[in-house]
Here is the input.
Amino acid sequence: MMKPFAILSAVILFAGCASSDASLDTAEKRRFLELTRFHGLDAYSGAIWDTGLPSVRLHPAGSPGGADAPDGAATVGGKPRMPPGFEWPAWNGKSLSFIAQIDCSRLPPEARDAGLPDDGMLYFFYDAEQGTWGFDPLDKGSWKVVYAAPTAEPLAEAEFPPDLPEYARFAATPMRAAVSRSFPSPFTARSAGLGMAGDSDMDYLDFMDDWVAGGFSMERQPVCRMFGYPDVIQNEMELDCELASNGLYLGDGSGYADPRAEALERGAGDWILLLQVDSVDSSGMMWGDGGMLYFWIRRGDLKEKNFDDAWMILQCG
Here is the structure.
């Protein structure tokens, strides 16, 4: 697959394990220390480790961490398995593309610790034409996150709507969920807070590239995951979610200078990453030029199972 702009990779592969007990955490940290030492970051390893956040990495079948998928936790693309009466979302009279489904009951406990329901299904949809990027308040509706609580009746695979173009009907890629530790992307405000000097920023970039791939010089796999730090391709997104969702247009930068922006900035910290979906070759997904979709949600909305106000941003290199 086409590799996104290298300086913007930042996710952790947790050695293919889906547990967070002390022995596995020790193994993960040992690998972390090996990589930071190799990349000349010994002086900053403590600060880097301490800034890490838990996340749930979704490893595709056929990848080193997939071993070899299906555990039923997630599927990117394909046809969704829906409860009876489920209505396929549309926007401006056109059906949305189906992006992913998550079985909450099959995720590691860390996902529920982050606020996800114990059970039920999450479905993610997006504009079939990829015409919206999340910087315009009017983009809302071009994506949809739907939560379906468990029912006594079995789920059934839905058929694609007749109006959905063939290029927007993605192939299914089963994913296996595994606990991971995520770190800030290189060259962002959060990584700048690590206080690295000289060429250490470039060393951190190289470290993150290896960490994403799961080891030294390994081929990068699609980075799909829930919670933790996103893999930033252009800029950090929490403020953009807060401003755009409150009616400020960001496409030309005017929203940042709006008199309302300063007061809204305080709400940026309420947003957390719900799901990141990479360009996944096996599903035929390409977001812009090898980019990613990021679905965000406010902590309070997640607690209340209010997915209607989730925000989506597309970034690419």
